[in-house]
Amino acid sequence: MGGRRESLVTRSSDESRELGRALGRLLEAGDLVALYGDLGSGKTVLAQGISVGLGYDGYVSSPSFIVVNEYAGRVPILHVDLYRIHDPAEIEDLGYRELFFGDGVAIIEWAERAREFLPDERLDIRISIDAPDMRTLVFDARGDRHVRVKSALLKLWRERSQDEDSHD
Known about the structure:
Elements: E1 6-10, H1 13-26, E2 32-37, H2 43-53, E3 68-72, E4 76-81, H3 88-93, H4 96-100, E5 105-109, E6 122-131, E7 134-142, H5 144-167
Parallel strand pairs: 2-5, 2-6, 4-5
Antiparallel strand pairs: 1-7, 3-4, 6-7
Helix pairs in contact: 1-2, 1-5
């Protein structure tokens, strides 16, 4: 149902942000992007790009201390950072149903901390650090809608990369 996992590599934070922007353009109300990765892997950078792709033109910061930031784009954007959450009861107290199953797009950093609360249909992105500026992003789409989003994103990104290579 989730399709196979696929990955790609970005070679700078600007490139990761641009990938996020391309993803944001494909997302619709009700979509959820679950981000996984170590501290400093680029989850917030990707969230910044996704937000821009969704039409938000302000600054996107990690909501580590306040947990949730909401931004106005073409649909509401809920940026959730669960770094400081360690007890599942805290996730229930956040009103996770409204966050994870709402009318906007939810971007969840440290999604592993809410594993049992996440919707079955979502786009999981695991980010690993390969070098100071190099990241591998592994995409695992769950549900038909997110499989289509993942496929469209990877097709766009690979075409972009081929265009850049042909200009070198």
